[in-house]
Specification:
The complex is a heterodimer of chains A (353) and B (1006). By secondary structure, chain A is of the alpha/beta class. Helices cover 20% and strands 32% of the residues of chain A. Chain A is globular, with a radius of gyration of 20 Å. Classes of the chains: A alpha/beta (353), B alpha/beta (1006). Chains A and B meet through helix 3, strand 15 and strand 16 of A and helix 9 and helix 16 of B.
């Protein structure tokens, strides 16, 4: 049935709706340029409530499997594609993408010129959009504060190991946990609203997870977060990185249309090397806001020179705007986990910048 | 500023085609951009890189260590760039290092170092490195006897793969399926290997074959430009595989696992520049194997460049000069950097172009040895669309297949078409998958095409169906044929439903960043985003020549690119359409805009309409473009210098002979026959032998000399309807010559005559030739006069090629080609005359240009052009020269005398006077005392055996020639070729000479 994707700036794109689209569905619209990794994107809590547009036209070729979910359920609120492959082909595939989306009542559009949608988002920035059967949509106030919706309810502990990491949860991805378990680290996931639990859990170090939306949504807990950061060697990923910056007095701002995809080059000021990273964020740490903080820039984006990672002058804190845990995307930054574990093991005395 | 010596890849051969002209040209231009002086050695004159626009000094000299050292001694370059000239250049770099030439002349090798190259190329070193890196490689063993091979096979099980050490393009190798085949293949392999060593390997046939194109700089930044998935699973050479980019059936986890492995390997090899990594992935587990790496730019990197828009060779050259990837701008966006990985929002399909349409009787099986001469690429937003566009780009009739399962099982070049047929007959995808291991995802794509075809046959042209068919790449005339209506009906229906072709951009970043590129493809899946190019000047569309094939090679890309440069200089806006990913013409920086599309009338018409083109240029795109002229003219599209009536008058033998008669120009006696019956009747009025020539063919395809009526009947049985009318010409004995001329309708400029070494009856593309000629003045004058008369008769504008036969004092016209020919680059370079530029200026009526006022050429040197036969890839074929062209490429050498040029041409062969067993001569009525006296069977086993000469036409001769080819020897099948070789031996120490340069200051393009 002919349906529409309405952008708040007024542009409308035609497509064919899934049976799961009934009432108009509104959300923030973002585009993902990676050519693989749709299952990881759909289940990444950082995409909570967003409508994701895939720029690669053939989505669903290898189906859906039991291994590549980043959380227990689909997090996005809607999907826009050109083609959703009906008969996937992969030995791990258990169902088709369409069946998966329908099974979890997630609406999607196909037959949309996703390149044109991407250009519209690029031109007018991240904005609200609506999937609808009607040729017109009255936009309502956007939903916000997604981090409260995606964080867990209580502390949960995984794995065994000599090293114990507290994973402060803003909407963690399974791959962060797996990157740690693979390195024989015991992990306790602590909802950020219960950050005081750190004192009970008494881990050796902290990792601040990724999460959806605006890092300033976490401001009500920022003092408590700073208190634990002062005490534990810590590593912030994506939103975790932004929260660390906020905790030490730096500021964040919204990018025009965010970074999403599997091909963002990041340069390491320490080694001079550039590596490719997986990214998914709307907000970024403001460069000039670092000047009166104990933080310095270690990683920067080669394309737009934005901040991609920080070091605290104590050498105990590091952060990355990108996703070293990958999934989807390149594994080039996985070594950061090794570096962090090394740092924790040597009690943070090593100078890194 | 420093002086850089660049080694090219030499003549086009199977496994090493135009992609190295593209990479070499990009590399040379990048070096010049950085202010370096470029000294180029490449004996392929048909290339764009051997032009003074690209290099500062060009040597068409033999690609041997001896010859290179002479050039190095004269030029004293500071550094050497060998990573852009294919395996040929890479091997020469290794040899120059081994023979300490680099050290002697203090030459720095730019880019990837010798030890890395050897570690990548030497199978044993590579294997050891993979073990160190914990990267899996298929089980294998180095063996030197058949017994060892047998023991290995018994251990790992059949099939096993045989890879002879130190050979090119899989020569002498293959797959052993069962013990009975082992002995023959391993014996051949041991013989093919110069060190009598074969690597036997456990076969992983059936695995997915995946390639990554990696770039790495000296600081260690390492990126993957593109990955590709082969439609054909492991077992078919990647050059013979249909390839899709990006990979389609890999999860992100699979993709990243293989990407990480590739990066790890390239980093360990310390590559500086480009590197290709081939991997095999088990379709039912995460198990993978590393197949091989190529530490240089390659055919795949040219494909990856065109598939993504990322200019690998250009970046590789700059990295070799010491730049890092994050310092280099991404030229497509202009403000992002080269240290990123392209994101595609379309699908690319590469389809190989095989020579089997010319040799239908040859063994068509595909395996570890590459057979394709070229390839096409297509871009669309669905795989269905991209597959269809690729097939439309092949410029061949879709072959009729019989014995379908054989082609699936073997496999052969017809596998794709056999699958199509089987699906049409209702065979289940699962069954085909079980037989071929081709991923069901790809088979479904073919299935969708079949379903659409069947719907068109039965359902009539509804809006959704027509839209679907167009999204899936069906052309209007094909739809009409299926739906049983006229093309006009389909066009009308499309108009009614508003189903129009859109154009989209290739931008490397899936629209994430704004890009100002000129790289465009068409699609029916989505909206148009391409505005017509604006500008004050007029707009030209230049038609390309499509894939490299026997008879239509890189020389037509040369003409097209030169035409673009000339038009740009005259203030025209240039638009290129072509589909060959290996070429310079499909570099998006060549023309003002590139449409990467099948060269089909419907698509050309869409572009002409969309861009509001003033003039279309078919003259520079070979026979492919010329064959479209009539249809384009009918569609009311303005053509430059090509008129359908002229084409008809030249191609239709009756009209052509009538015109010659009127002009009082002798021609061979011949009759046009419109049917088999007519041909057999006509034959009665001639004496055999006769030359039987079909119409509208490239490279003498289907052309045969028939000795009697029985042979004629055989030949006619093999031709199909579209080859009629067939012309029967009496075969005159004599010398053949040809000319390339520029004409403005009144005046003709004819630089000189190209004199063939082999006699008439041998296809001009397979002849060696001397230019300028050694003919006497009277003959020359006759040829000039006839040429002028012919051009004037048709008030012809532009480039024309005429072939003549000389018998004593008489000159006969054989044929006229109203277009740029194979020899245009040779004539242009040796005479130092910008033929294409002049032709263009005539075609656009440039008032500042007068053909009659151009000075006569001054020849400083004599050139000898020679054919290159990729006989190693077609070992079952008798390479006896005849009217059906067999060579895949050509080379050229210059000398102050013909002898000196010949000495260079044959520089790779031993001297018959020094080496007793070098040569065996079976010439009718000729005894060569210096040649071997051994019987053939014994001689062929000798280490020194190198040249086999046999000009006879009988079964035994044929068998011997084939045996000689199989043993990797040079075969000469004409006495005149052998005589030329002997003549060359007279010159003992040839001196390198550069191509003449810039005698026409201000006239040459750019």
């Amino acid at each position: 049935m002919e349906s529409y994707l309405h952008l708040q700036d007024g542009r409308t794109f035609k497509g064919k709706a899934s049976s799961t689209l009934q009432e108009p569905m509104q959300g923030e619209v973002v585009f993902f340029t990676g050519m693989t990794g749709y299952q990881e994107v759909l289940t990444d809590p950082s995409y909570k409530d967003q409508i994701v547009v895939f720029t690669y036209p053939l989505i669903g070729n290898y189906g859906i499997n039991d291994a590549d979910e980043e959380s227990r359920e689909i997090q996005v609120s809607g999907v826009v594609m050109y083609q959703c492959t009906q008969q996937p082909s992969h030995f791990q595939s258990t169902q088709s993408l369409g069946a998966y989306l329908e099974g979890q009542q997630v609406p999607y559009l196909t037959g949309v010129d996703t390149r044109e949608v991407t250009k519209a988002i690029r031109a007018h920035g991240t904005q609200q959009a609506a999937m609808s059967h009607q040729d017109h949509h009255d936009f309502s106030k956007p939903s916000e504060q997604q981090i409260f919706a995606v964080q867990g309810e209580a502390v949960e502990t995984y794995g065994e190991g000599d090293l114990h990491v507290g994973l402060i949860d803003f909407g963690w991805k399974k791959s962060i946990l797996q990157s740690l378990l693979k390195r024989h680290v015991k992990v306790s996931v602590i909802p950020f609203t219960q950050v005081e639990e750190v004192h009970t859990v008494k881990p050796d170090a902290l990792i601040l997870s990724n999460g959806p939306g605006d890092p300033k949504d976490a401001l009500p807990k920022i003092d408590q977060i700073k208190a634990v950061l002062d005490e534990y060697p810590s590593f912030g990923i994506c939103m975790g990185h932004q929260v660390i910056a906020l905790a030490y007095g730096a500021d964040t701002e919204k990018l025009p249309f965010g970074h999403r995809g599997a091909n963002h080059p990041v340069k390491d000021a320490v080694t001079g090397k550039v590596f490719l990273t997986s990214q998914n964020h709307n907000y970024v740490v403001k460069k000039e806001s670092l000047s009166h903080t104990p933080l310095t820039e270690r990683f920067s984006n080669v394309n737009d020179r934005s901040i991609e990672g920080l070091m605290h002058h104590s050498g105990q804190l590091m952060s990355a705007q990108f996703h070293p845990e990958a999934h989807p995307g390149p594994h080039d930054a996985e070594w950061l986990f090794d570096d962090f574990i090394g740092l924790v093991s040597s009690k943070g005395v090593k100078e890194h910048v | 500023m420093s002086k850089v010596l660049v080694i090219g890849s030499g003549p086009i051969m199977i496994g090493q085609a135009a992609e190295f002209d593209y990479s070499g040209t990009q590399g040379c231009l990048a070096l010049k951009e950085e202010g370096h002086e470029v000294i180029l050695v490449n004996n392929n004159p048909a290339t764009i890189m051997t032009d003074y626009d690209v290099a500062d000094k060009v040597y068409c000299e033999p690609l041997t260590v001896k010859s290179l050292e002479k050039i190095i001694a004269v030029e004293r370059p500071d550094s050497l760039l060998a990573g852009l000239g294919g395996q040929t250049a890479l091997n020469l770099a290794v040899e120059l290092e081994k023979e300490e030439v680099l050290k002697k002349y203090d030459l720095t090798l730019l880019g990837t170092g010798i030890s890395s190259i050897m570690q990548g190329e030497d199978r044993e070193l590579f294997r050891a490195l993979m073990n160190d890196l914990d990267q899996p490689v298929p089980e294998s063993e180095v063996i030197t006897t058949i017994e060892q091979a047998r023991a290995f096979a018994a251990e790992v099980g059949y099939p096993i793969i045989s890879r002879p050490a130190y050979t090119l393009g899989g020569r002498g190798g293959g797959i052993v399926h069962k013990e009975e085949d082992l002995e023959e293949l391993i014996a051949t392999g041991l013989k093919a290997s110069p060190i009598h060593q074969v690597i036997v390997e456990k076969s992983i046939a059936g695995f997915k074959e995946i390639e990554y194109e990696i770039m790495r700089d000296h600081k260690g930044t390492c990126i993957s430009v593109c990955n590709m998935e082969n439609f054909d699973p492991v077992g078919v050479h990647t050059g013979d595989s249909i390839v899709v980019a990006p990979s389609q059936s890999l999860t992100d986890d699979d993709y990243q696992m293989l990407r990480s492995a590739s990066l790890k390997i390239v980093s360990a090899l310390e590559v500086i520049g480009g590197c290709n990594v081939q991997l095999a992935l088990d379709p039912v587990s995460k198990q993978y194997y590393v197949i091989e790496v190529n530490p240089r730019v390659s055919r795949s990197s040219a494909l990856a460049s065109k598939a993504t828009g990322y200019p690998i060779a250009k970046m590789a050259a700059k990295i070799a000069l010491g730049y890092t990837l994050d310092e280099l701008e991404n030229p497509l966006t202009g403000y992002t950097y080269a240290s990123f990985e392209p994101a595609l929002d379309y699908v690319v399909v590469k389809f190989p172009r095989w020579p089997f349409d010319k040799f239908p009787q040859a063994d068509r099986s595909l395996g570890t040895k590459m057979r394709a001469t070229g390839e096409v690429m297509a871009i669309d937003r669905t795989m269905e669309g991209a597959f269809q566009k690729a097939i439309q780009s092949l410029d061949t009739k879709v072959p009729e297949v019989t014995n379908h399962w054989y082609h699936l099982h073997q496999p052969t070049d017809l596998r794709f078409f056999a699958i199509y047929d089987l699906l049409k007959k209702g065979t289940a995808v699962e069954k085909i998958h079980a037989e071929t291991q081709i991923d069901p995802l790809f088979l479904q794509v073919i299935s969708h095409l079949v379903e659409t075809e069947q719907a068109l046959e039965t359902e009539g042209l509804s809006q959704p169906l027509l839209h679907q068919a167009k999204v899936y790449g069906f052309l209007d005339d094909h739809i009409a044929e299926l739906a049983g209506c006229t093309t006009a009906d389909v066009e009308q229906a499309r108009k009614n439903y508003d189903i129009q072709r859109s154009f989209k951009l290739v931008d490397t970043c899936a629209a994430e960043f704004e890009a100002a590129t000129n790289y465009v493809y068409s699609t029916f899946a989505g909206l148009n985003e391409i505005e017509p190019l604006s500008g004050d000047g007029k707009k030209a569309l230049i038609l390309g020549s499509g894939p490299i094939r026997i008879g239509q090679g890189v020389e037509f890309d040369y003409s097209a690119v030169k035409a673009i440069e000339s038009l740009q200089k005259q203030g025209w806006t240039t638009i290129m359409i072509n589909n060959n990913p290996e070429t310079v013409s499909t570099d998006y920086e060549t023309a003002d805009r590139l449409y990467f599309e099948p060269i089909q009338k419907e698509i050309i018409a869409s572009i002409v309409e969309h861009e509001n083109i003033d003039l279309v240029f078919p003259q520079f795109g070979g026979q492919t473009a010329i064959n479209l002229a009539e249809d384009l003219e009918k569609a009311g599209i303005p053509l430059a210098g090509v008129r359908a009536d002229v084409l008809d008058a030249l191609e239709d033998r009756d009209k052509f002979y009538a015109a010659l008669k009127k002009l009082d120009i002798p021609h061979v006696a011949g009759t046009t026959c419109h049917s088999k019956k007519e041909a057999l009747q006509a034959a009665d009025s001639y004496t055999f032998p006769l030359l039987c020539r079909p119409s509208y063919v490239i490279g003498g395809q289907g052309m045969v000399i028939v000795q009697d009526k029985q042979e004629l009947e055989g030949a006619l049985a093999e031709s199909d309807e579209r080859h009629y009318p067939i012309v029967l010409d009496s075969l005159l004995q004599g010398a053949e010559v040809e000319v390339d001329l520029v004409s403005d309708g009144q005046t003709v400029y004819l630089p000189d005559i190209i004199e063939h070494i082999e006699p008439g009856g041998v296809h001009s593309g397979d002849s060696m030739a001397v230019f300028p000629s050694t003919l006497g003045d009277a003959l020359k004058q006759k040829i000039y006069t006839y040429s002028e008369k012919i051009a004037a008769e048709f008030t012809y504008s532009g480039l024309m090629n005429i072939q003549f036969l000389i018998q004593k004092d008489d000159v006969y016209v054989l044929e006229v080609n109203p277009r740029a020919s194979r020899t245009v680059p040779i004539v242009s370079k040796v005479a130092d005359i910008p033929m294409v530029d002049w032709a263009v200026r005539i075609l656009i009526d440039d008032p500042a240009f007068s053909l009659s006022r151009q000075p006569a050429p001054v020849f400083q040197e004599t050139a000898v052009k020679y054919p290159l036969f990729s006989s190693y890839a077609m070992t079952d074929l008798d390479h006896k020269l005849g009217p059906n062209m067999k060579s895949t490429g050509e080379g050229m050498c210059l000398g102050t005398t013909v002898e000196e040029a010949l000495a260079k041409v044959f520089a790779h062969l031993p001297d018959l006077y020094d080496v007793k067993e070098a040569c065996l001569v079976d010439l009718e009525g000729k005894h060569v005392p210096e040649a071997s006296d051994l019987p053939f069977e014994e001689w062929i086993t000798k280490e020194d055996a190198a040249i086999y000469v046999n000009d006879q036409s009988n079964e035994e001769a044929e068998k011997r020639r084939i045996t000689a080819v199989k043993n990797g020897l040079t075969v000469m099948s004409e006495a005149s070729t052998f005589e030329a070789y002997l003549k060359g031996l007279a010159c003992k120490d040839p001196v390198p000479v550069p191509l003449p340069q810039q005698s026409h200051e201000g006239v040459k393009s750019l």
